[in-house]
Design goal:
Mean pLDDT: 89
Radius of gyration: 20 Å
Shape: globular
Number of strands: 0
Strand content: under 5%
Length: 248
């Protein structure tokens, strides 16, 4: 995956991919994971690391290109019928449909924060892993709609990406984050006996988690929308130069 293996591969893509993997690693295999079972606010940091940082960074790293380049030729030939199958392509296309990706992400996010299901995930390690897998998969599906994960293209036009990010960001960060911040009582029994050892009331911890989702999540979606806007301008400038070149 290093640039020395094949000239011309952008270093920033390698750095982005490694940063995305590191983000997932910190969320799943560092003390963050253990603390997330005792503090809701740390759970929310973990959630941000997976969905709003790790997933888009991995896609920006365009991992398919170096993965294909680094795969032995014999293995590539063996896997080609599977990769090129119409069923797989249709399934990937379905998951990358903007409405489907948004539904999987937003509906899944709300479902996992329903108190009964959330408490189950905290108490059952297997369910906890399923929760994380859902976050990773739905996050990759969501961000693939607005990120151009070379050699593939995003499934939305540049201008539409801005609107999409605004709507999905509001559905997650503003609405759910607001519900957590302004709740008058703790929603999750899992933290009723654990936050006290850190000198924090369960409700305060919950409100801090909602504030993290609201502020940090909104900031990341705003940055993504801003980048989409600048990419839109670049695309318009390229198209304008192309038209002018034809006119000459």
């Amino acid at each position: 995956m290093g640039e020395g293996q094949r000239p011309g591969w952008p270093r920033w893509r390698t750095a982005s991919f490694l940063a995305g993997i590191a983000s997932l690693g910190i969320a799943a295999f560092s003390p963050v994971d253990a603390l997330a079972e005792e503090l809701f606010s740390v759970h929310m940091v973990q959630h941000m690391l997976i969905v709003t940082i790790g997933a888009p960074l991995i896609l920006l790293g365009a991992p398919v290109v170096p993965l294909v380049r680094g795969t032995p030729r014999e293995l590539r030939r063996a896997l080609h019928p599977i990769v090129a199958s119409g069923s797989l392509r249709r399934a990937v296309g379905f998951l990358r449909n903007p409405l489907v990706a948004a539904l999987l992400y937003v509906a899944g996010l709300y479902a996992w924060h329903v108190p009964a299901l959330y408490d189950l995930a905290v108490g059952d390690r297997a369910v906890h892993q399923v929760q994380h897998a859902w976050y990773v998969a739905s996050g990759l599906a969501l961000w693939s709609v607005v990120v151009d994960p070379s050699p593939f293209a995003a499934t939305l036009a540049h201008g539409a990406r801005i609107v999409y990010l605004a709507i999905v960001g509001a559905a997650q960060n503003t609405i759910l984050g607001g519900l957590l911040v302004f709740s008058a009582r703790p929603l999750y029994r899992s933290y009723e006996a654990t936050t006290a050892r850190y000198g924090i009331a369960a409700l305060t911890d919950q409100q801090a988690g909602g504030a993290i989702m609201w502020s940090m999540g909104s900031l990341i979606f705003f940055i993504a929308a801003s980048l989409a806007f600048f990419r839109w301008l670049e695309a318009e400038e390229r198209e304008q130069r192309r038209r002018e070149g034809r006119a000459e």
